[in-house]
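Repro:
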Amino acid sequence: MHLTNQIADLYAQMLMPLENNIKISIINKLSASILEKENSAKTNMSFFDELNNSWCDNVSPEEECDSIRNSRVSDKTRILEEF
């Protein structure tokens, strides 16, 4: 038997003598913790989605890379408009 299954069985045996309403409460808390982790992952990804297209111009990623690469060689940087 896999170690994860053994741990799950151990917890199930520990919870067996508890009243049903306590077991349901534990199930609800475990379910909520799973949903929180899923929502947390979505929230973390939304941060990167907000960064996408954050420049106020129509410069392609390739053009931006070229500009950065060229600035390293020519000591020039791109001037960004202030907000």
